[in-house]
């Protein structure tokens, strides 16, 4: 019907008694399946800058309806619209519509955008008790020290929150420094992460070989406990370090990952972790560089999330300085917010790097999850892919069916010195999960007779 009316020169900018145009109504009424019709209105001259009687733009209506895909169409159609996104950012922060905020950030919105009252989205998110939204704003550079025209900062607003919730907000505002834009950012260990979006990534799926039951990977552990309990954050099992302070666990992701946050789930007693720091390195045994101090606060779920400027690394160490008075340190689980760089490289290889934002918004942050969602992506073209990208995506997923060996290292190294005639001790290597490639062990003739 829309196309028929436009064919007969209907004016797409007519408005009703409430000042709402066809775009205002379409944002609320249309689903993602109708997004092509929405684009048709814009192509026919519908103006996304017309306000209704409540001074709301169609962009604001899209935020209220929590429709980031509609926002994407509007912001892509008019690249200057993000400069008038203050009301949209305020609404998203008040309602906790984080995906809408991420869409605004991906189009360059200033996280400290204000109006004449100097009220920022961070002020509103704290006042509205939207903890995850506060984390998102801080991670994208929101300044917790900006004062509005009532001389309130985000910190002073947080100080007025009920004590049961105050500590979580203060932890984020005090301990999480604002990050910078990542479009030309260099990570802590020297890897350029250009073209990776600046937002909080989804949680990565832990792999069973990311940390191991050896002294290289963890501090002293109780006999009845396993450090690999940390890898299942949904399970009610714990890693128990016999030390009440200076306990640590090291993760080897096997590949480079872009990490910008961590989730630590403690326990409901004094052995739960308190203070600590996150370290990164280029090797399993260090040397280590500290990137984030943190304090875990006890809560009903014992869950604490911490965020920091994105960095690309393979090795991360979680160092627990102390607890709340227990004889040992017990942690139920540790998980990381990030994206597997193999996914980023794959998308770049097949010319699909502009789809990374969309995949991350839908929780797809590694090749395995991409492969699991292959059919949904191909069958939901307007949600994930443009029609011209289908064949490239098919080629990409076909390549996942033949996984390649990307790393190989000693698990039990061979002896370096033996006596002639003696049998060599058993040695072994470890590589990617699921890889069955044959490898060749070559003899290096460097023999010294003693």
Structural features, described:
- The protein is an alpha+beta fold and 450 residues long.
- It has a domain at 2-175: Ankyrin repeat-containing domain (Serine Threonine Protein Phosphatase 5, Tetratricopeptide repeat), CATH 1.25.40.20.
- The chain has helices at residues 2-7, 22-29, 35-43, 58-64, 68-77, 86-95, 98-106, 121-127, 131-139, 154-158, 163-175, 341-349, 356-361, 367-372, 374-379, 381-384, 390-400, and strands spanning 239-241, 247-265, 275-281, 289-295, 303-320, 329-331, 333-340, 408-412, 428-431.
- Strands 4-3-5-2-7 form a five-stranded antiparallel β-sheet. Strands 1-6 form a two-stranded antiparallel sheet. Strands 8-9 form a two-stranded antiparallel sheet.
- The relative contact order is 0.08.
- The model is unreliable at 177-198 (pLDDT under 50).
Give the helix level as a range of percent: 25-40%
Q: Decide which structural class fits the backbone.
A: alpha+beta
Spatial ordering of strands, largest sheet: 4-3-5-2-7
CATH topology of the domain at 2-175: Serine Threonine Protein Phosphatase 5, Tetratricopeptide repeat
Major sheet attributes: 5 strands, antiparallel
Count, helices: 17
The count of β-strands is: 9
Q: What ranges have pLDDT less than 50 throughout 5 or more consecutive residues?
A: 177-198
Tell me the overall shape.
flat
Task: Classify the beta-strand content into a percent band.
Answer: 15-25%
Question: Which second-level CATH architecture of the domain at 2-175 applies?
Answer: Alpha Horseshoe
CATH class division of the domain at 2-175 = Mainly Alpha
Domain F5/8 type C: 186-339
Protein name: F5/8 type C domain-containing protein
InterPro entries: Ank_Repeat/CDKN_Inhibitor, Ankyrin_rpt, Ankyrin_rpt-contain_sf, FA58C, Galactose-bd-like_sf
ANK repeats: 18-53, 117-149
